[in-house]
Design a protein that fits this description.
Length: 242
Amino acid sequence: MFEAALWGGIAGSSLLLGALVGIFKDIPNKVSAFIMAFGTGVLIGAATFELLSDAVKEGGILYPSIGFLLGATLFIVAELIIMKKGGHERKRSKVSPAGHAGIAILMGTIIDAIPESVIIGVSLLENHTVSWLIVIAIFISNFPEGLSSSIGMKKDGYSKLKIISLWAIVMLLSAISALLGYALIDTSSQHLITSISAFAAGGIFAMVSSTMMPEAFEEGGPIVGFISALGLLCSLILTFYG
């Protein structure tokens, strides 16, 4: 349980790291977009090679398919709710048009982070060792989110202490989610485990498609397509050698 919480916290720590860089350093939006594009490719690879394909291999096609669609659906429904509160700008390094959307930004990031962290605990249950690909993918993808969101919150007038506190809470929740994923999942039910893996994959795909990809392209231009492909190739190589 401690190991699950540790790796969940490490994966989520890049949110806080990105926030610190965004607060104290002036990072060009294009650089943030390139990091986000690479993280997008890594996350897609992790969801495909590590989560979805393994779920189908071990649990058949039916339950993983249902879990995948439920994960994507739940994320989009939650995203629609967050949009109405102004949290859809959480990955943007500009002033939020809604203004004072700190709580919505926090909730939106939690919606991104919890399924990713839970699957760290599940992978530890399945393989008795952490999935390095999942941890690396989450870490890389979280950094530009913390970076760009914190720049936007700073422009909205939030204090440095408040911004850091928000991301520290998310990092803590990431650790708790990974711990719960390890402690509460019934390992005797293969259908449950494969469904949860596919559920997380569906949420990841919906998240990168609706938030990370548009932001990366808007700020970085067409070159981000190539950078995303590099991230996907990185996932493939890590999967092959892992």
